[in-house]
Amino acid sequence: MSQSRHGLYTPEGGPADPVFRIGLAPIPVEHWFEGGEQDPAARKDALLASVPHLVWGETEGSRLAQSEVAGMVADWLGRPPPSNDPPLWTASRAVADDLCLMENRGGEWTLTAASLCAPSFFSAAASVGQPLSGLHAPVPGFNEGLLHRVARIFDHLPPDQVVERRNWTVVNSPDLHQPDPAPYRARLAAQSLEQIAAGLHVRRERQTLRRAPRTGAVLFTIRIWTERLDDLLSEPDRRAGFATAWERLMMDEGAPFRTYKRLDLYDGAVRARLASFPA
Ligand code: HEM
Predict the structure, then answer these.
(1) pLDDT tens digits, 138-156
(2) Distance between Cα 223 and ligand 1 center (Å)
(3) Which residues, in sequence order, are CB contacts of 6 under 8 Å at separation 6+?
(4) DSSP annotation of 145
(5) How far is the centre of ligand 1, averaged over its atoms, from the C-alpha of 136 (Å)?
(6) Which of 25, 46, 154, 263 is 20 to 30 A (C-alpha) from 107?
(7) SS3 readout for 22-56
(8) H/E element, 228
């Protein structure tokens, strides 16, 4: 992915107001996956060997839709459909993205299978089998404000339309696989402000949705990009955009967003880093 496309991601290139939003936009099918990783299978196989329950899960009855979406991924890549089971896991080895299969079960869009090797504080064990409402229970206001609209998007997404959304956060590690925030946050107690600042990373998440026409399932893809905060701040334009976004987050309007993402943990370190650059 080119840096210019990367630069479109919030914080420094996105909407200034820090609120939870649907933020889906149509993209051409040629842009479904961004690529950019040499050997995703090696990374994913190692995780499957060490923490299988965290990175893979499937529910009974999901194999038909798994096969359909695996075929769509293979078609897009110009490869033969996977011959090994489970199909969704096999498909996920060919792309950098995590692959989440959503099916309508009893009127609720439900995560029926998932390959989740770069989770931002969730896991296959805790999420497979959950409906949209359960998956988003920790997100402030989601079930009251967004759930109904998101479910309608799943109901009506046309098969030939890929849609994309992005979000971002700041974390203290470049690890892609972060199923649980606890060990990362525990480190902070023993670190100086300088040490915390040096370890900060902007974690950007790009998601897409695409319908499988035969089964009606929807494939939700998640691609994580991480970048050292220092690298972002070393570019004056991006630094200015980031500083503005951070200020907005720390104002009253950003409270739900920053509390949910625990960004208060890093405010002192981020400010110290921003202050170390010329205004
Ligand atoms: C149109 C589709 C969706 C929308 C608009 C949406 C929206 C959101 C929003 C606003 C958040 C809070 C963080 C952020 O700003 O992104 C979030 C978090 C999350 N979403 Fe979604 N989401 C969608 C689909 C899904 C799907 C299909 C899954 C299934 C895996 C999912 C799983 C999660 C999880 C696990 C979290 C983190 C919750 C936590 O903090 O534990 N989302 N989503």
Answers:
(1) 999 999 999 999 999 999 9
(2) 13
(3) 204, 225, 227
(4) I
(5) 6
(6) 25
(7) CCCEEECHHHCCCCCCCCHHHHHHHHHHHCHHHHE
(8) strand 218-228
